[in-house]
Amino acid sequence: MTQARFITLEGGEGVGKSTLASGLVRWLDTRGVQILQTREPGGTPIADEIRRVFKSPPAGEDITPETEALLVCAARAQHVAKVIKPALTSGQWVLCDRFADSTRVYQGLFGGVGINEVERLIKFSTGGLEPDLTFLLDCDVTITAGRIGARGADPKGDDVARYDQAGHQVLDRLRQAFRKLAGFYPARFYILDASLPPEKVLQDACAELERRWKL
Ligand SMILES: Nc1ncnc2c1ncn2[C@@H]1O[C@H](COP(=O)(O)OP(=O)(O)OP(=O)(O)O)[C@@H](O)[C@H]1O
Ligand SMILES: [Mg+2]
């Protein structure tokens, strides 16, 4: 059996993370790898409760950047301790849709919380666990804005990020923040051209998995 790997998917709204996640789970299955699929914020009952507050804060009160950072890190602490680490320890692979890099970008580089504070919170909440591989789905924001618009309201009702409302300029700044972050961790990140059709994005990701781990 191959060593258990921890893979994360990152990128802005509507770049195709969830679409790629499903494709990767199917492809890995054909290679004999059953991977646990999860997402952040959330992934345990407590973390999902925190996600609810994060995604739909009660009306009439602004959430501070510090509170937001603490909430996502609290959810992650629970997720890592109760789901991700036990899975990896038992030899199971884990695929997580967003992880600490989203906190680095949204709350750190992009939000009001300094990157040093964010790094401390991340380390505290993860115990230093980092993914083995992070796919950054990178795409021109005019394309992703079109996809978000075409998708409309999420039937699950909880997945329309507040940033979906943001203008192109904001989305582009987010995109650049993710690219900058990838530059800080060149060995861990693999950047996918997410403007390609879904099957091409999946093909590129699978080729990288084969290249790295001889699957
Ligand atoms: N490579 C692609 N080419 C064209 N359309 C795509 C591609 N990938 C995903 N889509 C479509 O774009 C929309 C957004 O995709 P998806 O939900 O996978 O993105 P996401 O990154 O998970 O979004 P969110 O951040 O909101 O969770 C969906 O309607 C999906 O079918
Ligand atoms: Mg998604």
What secondary-structure arrangement, pairings included, does this model have?
Blueprint: E1 6-10, H1 17-30, E2 35-39, H2 45-55, H3 65-89, E3 93-97, H4 100-109, H5 115-126, E4 133-138, H6 141-151, H7 168-184, E5 189-193, H8 198-213
Parallel strand pairs: 1-3, 1-4, 2-3, 4-5
Bound molecules: adenosine-5'-triphosphate (ATP) and magnesium ion.
Overview of this protein structure:
The protein is an alpha/beta fold. The protein has one domain: Rossmann fold, CATH 3.40.50.300. It is 54% helix and 12% strand. Strands 2-3-1-4-5 form a five-stranded parallel beta sheet, with helices on both faces. α4 runs antiparallel to α5. The protein starts with 5 loop residues before the first strand and ends with a helix. About 4% of the residues have low confidence.
Brief write-up:
The chain is 54% helix and 12% strand.
Helix content: 40-55%
Strand order of the largest sheet: 2-3-1-4-5
Quaternary assembly: single chain
User: Largest sheet, described in full?
Assistant: 5 strands, parallel
Unreliable spans are 155-163
Q: Globular, elongated, flat, extended or rod-shaped: what is the shape? A: globular
Tally of structural domains: 1
Distance between the termini: 11 Å
Task: State the secondary-structure class.
Answer: alpha/beta
CATH class: Alpha Beta
By DSSP (H or I, 4+ residues per run), the number of helices equals 8
Q: How many β-strand stretches?
A: 5
Our Rg estimate from Cα atoms comes to 17 Å
CATH topology: Rossmann fold
Bound small molecules, by name, code or SMILES, are: adenosine-5'-triphosphate, magnesium ion
- CATH level-two architecture: 3-Layer(aba) Sandwich
